[in-house]
């Protein structure tokens, strides 16, 4: 029996994409920061079936253990008319929809990372991108396993996410794959993962997102290092083109979180619900937080012209430009390490009790 709410139209999404394969014969030089990042990426590989405790049960009535206040229609007449069983089903569907988009985005990142290995001209970038290919494959694996084994429910890719992935995968310029995936999609994902990591009470969902974030923090750093070196070399017209792409992509991502598929699948009046959700306070706060990684990163890599600043002012997120992105990335890594330490301590304590018995 399929777990998908809507069966995929085709077994796979296929599109023509052409790109230039770049070989770099200069093996004796590399940027120190990128080589250190590559070393960290190789040392911090992990196995999903080992690091995560898949024996934990997940409560279908509230899989992540999140408060109901995070549901955009909480407190509305639609919510008040629901039975307890219907509210439980909404929680499961909404969290499944969110994790499904994570899973699809990670497959997009997997393909983008493989494309970067092929197209980026520098050998040190190829080295690191190769470690990211493995990371992204692992992310697809763990999100897919969570959806299929624990939630037993999955959603197809959201059209807005699909459109952005299409841009990232079909553009022939190597830096546009970086920009779309490493900076925009990964930056948005980090913020969304962080909300779950910080507020979920379910230990499996919390740990899964924390461990993925530890990898993604390196990926965003990779994009920053590569593009910060490259963008000063561009002409004003070339930078303007990339800034316009970022503006369009940010509006596209801002409109990705309305959850039309969930409301439609649960039999709610989709147009009315979407109109309400789009103007709700909870979504305004959620959207603002989601750009907390993207805004300072774009400033850091030198895409900070008037059109980008104006767009972020209109979105109400310009204040994130002062965020210390390096400190946030360090915190992502430390939180994953703390979870590892807590799990080890719990295992050691259980073993000690067994030995005493």
* Terminus-to-terminus distance: 44 Å
| Residues in helix, % | 55-70%
Low-confidence segments, given as residue ranges, are: none
* Morphology: globular
> Which CATH class?
Mainly Alpha
Biggest sheet character: none
Q: Tell me the fraction of residues in β-strands, as a range.
A: under 5%
Total DSSP helices = 15
- Just name the CATH architecture: Orthogonal Bundle
Computed Rg: 21 Å
Q: Tell me the domain tally.
A: 1
Order of helices and strands: HHHHHHHHHHHHHHH
CATH topology: Ribonucleotide Reductase, subunit A
Mean pLDDT: 89
Which features characterize this protein?
357 residues, mainly alpha, Ribonucleotide Reductase, subunit A, 15 helices, 69% helix
3D structure, described in words:
- It is globular and about 60 Å long.
- With 357 residues, the chain is mainly alpha-helical.
- It has 15 helices and no strands.
- It has one domain: Ribonucleotide Reductase, subunit A, CATH 1.10.620.20.
- It has helices spanning 32-43, 48-51, 77-81, 84-119, 123-151, 159-170, 174-199, 203-230, 236-254, 260-265, 270-278, 281-290, 294-301, 306-315, 325-356.
- The relative contact order is 0.12.
Layout of SSEs?
Elements: H1 32-43, H2 48-51, H3 77-81, H4 84-119, H5 123-151, H6 159-170, H7 174-199, H8 203-230, H9 236-254, H10 260-265, H11 270-278, H12 281-290, H13 294-301, H14 306-315, H15 325-356
Helix pairs in contact: 1-5, 1-8, 4-5, 4-6, 4-7, 5-8, 6-7, 7-8, 7-9, 8-13, 8-15, 9-14
Give a concise summary:
The chain is an all-alpha fold and 357 residues long.
